[in-house]
Amino acid sequence: MTAPVGVGFIGAGMISDTYLENLSSFPDVKVIIVGDINVERAKSQADKYGVPEHGTGDDVLAHPDVQVIVNLTLPATHAEISSQAIAAGKHVWSEKPIGLDRVGTQALLEQADAAGLRVGIAPDTVLGPGVQTAKRAIDRGIIGTPLFASTQMQYQGPDLFHPNPSFLFAKGAGPLLDMGPYYITALVNLFGPVAKVGALGLRGLEERTVKVGPDAGSVFPVEVPSTIQMLTAFESGQQAQSLFSNDSPLFRQGVFEVHGTEGTLVIPDPNMFEGRVAYVKPIAAMNGDSNSMEQEWIDVPQEGIVTGRGLGLLDMVRAIAEGREHRANGRLGYHVLDVMLSAEESAAAGGEFVSVESTVGAIPTMPDDFDPLASTL
């Protein structure tokens, strides 16, 4: 790896804005080309962010100066496009999920290993100062021994704002595979790999209506559960309960609590890079006075520089240069996918617990002095 590392985009949809904005500001990388099936859209994004070239996905794959490909295609094509990137001799960073099935995803990772190339996988929000500050606090014993976690993500669904929401209710998406990676990846960062899961699911509506954009009023089918409730058992003995819903009239997102023997820690929304980290200590005793039940929230100062999406790709290219494993790696992405597919299988079986066959090693904490804006390569 030499600086700046050449980066090419395949996919120029909504999510590309935040990636292009951040990666264009990191000195260790240089965005060279934006590609999309809609070449005019690729040109528009390239012009907007000062990227010198645009074209199709094939143009990105063939570009001699591109060392890393950012795969921002639809979930159904993530594994296919990532495989094409590896075949072209490029490292790849993919939006979540890494794939839609175990066999194809395992084949992708084996292909990358054989080629000596890296696969990075979103989300990298968990590498931001919010979750990482919380991780360091737990490691310091601020809440004693962690016992269990509670997470919630519930609202009416992305059809509230997305002009083309049908793919978010199709196979490979739904609230579990769309939003679950943020919460499950954060849980695995904190507790380690998952041993088994149990889940219940439902579809609040069989069809949904596009609410915004040029296709407003059109109807599309809901192919997957739009609400999933999940119980998770970790190899370490800890547990978690999680709700993912696109059927809730009540908007409640980013609820993430870790309860331990000596306190409860509130962690920021794992879909964000920053947020409040705070904890409470247990009540010593109740003497009948209502004031004895009051608990003081103690803030934990946030550590680290806030950036945004692209942080995981930056960690990957620096890891290649340093000869270490990157944090948001393909094995972690596969394990999170395996957990989610196991939860879908449990829900289809009426809640029966399903063992998660894959595992993953401990994810190193980000150094608090990791500076995305530094030139290190």
UniProtKB/TrEMBL annotation:
Pfam assignment, any one: GFO_IDH_MocA_C3
Keywords, alphabetical: NAD, Oxidoreductase
Start and end residues of each GFO/IDH/MocA-like oxidoreductase domain: 131-265
Gfo/Idh/MocA-like oxidoreductase N-terminal domain location: 6-120
Gene Ontology MF: a single term: nucleotide binding
Statement: the UniProt record of this protein carries the keyword NAD: yes
Membrane spanning stretches: none
Name under which the protein is recorded: Gfo/Idh/MocA family oxidoreductase
Organism name: Microbacterium sorbitolivorans
Lineage, top ranks: Bacteria, Bacillati, Actinomycetota, Actinomycetes, Micrococcales
